[in-house]
Amino acid sequence: QVQVVESGGGLVQAGGSLRLSCAPSGSIFGIRGMGWYRQAPGKQREVVAAITAGEGPEYADSVKDRFTMFGDNAKNMLYLQMNSLKPEDTAVYYCNLNDDSGDYWGQGTQVTVSS
Question: What is the mean pLDDT of the chain?
């Protein structure tokens, strides 16, 4: 069973920064991709940043040059560094892992950006 746990959300003023962490665990085999998604109230879940095995990360246009996704293989962690945050970045952020056994999501972490 694969589990994905996000952390690092919170309340921040516009222009501020946050770093989200994603800790996958369990029987993970053949990772095909990982990424960060977000869902704002009344809106559909959207991709923020994602990476497919063997390819570089891709970012949503709305976060390019502000957000950076990176990993720490030694700690088996995935991070999302978010800078220059805007009120429109307010959402629940989810980590996703896709491997040979399926597609896994965390419970989400709330990010709220005040103006």
Answer: 95
Q: Are 16 and 10 in contact (CB under 8 A)?
A: no
Tokens of 68: 């950076």
Return the SS3 of 105: strand
Residue recorded with tokens 């994905």: 4
1 pLDDT higher than 90: no
Q: For the residues 52-60, what does the mean pLDDT come to?
A: 90
Strands (E), 1-115: 2-7, 10-13, 18-26, 33-39, 46-52, 58-59, 67-72, 77-82, 91-99, 102-105, 109-114
Q: Exposure pattern of 31-68 as b/e (b: 16+ CB <10 Å)?
A: eeebbbbbeeeeeeeeebbbbeeeeebebeeebeeebb
Query: Pick the residue with more confidence: 45 or 54?
Result: 45
Which of 90, 102, 89, 109 is closest to 22 using CA atoms? 109
Residues shown for the chain: 115
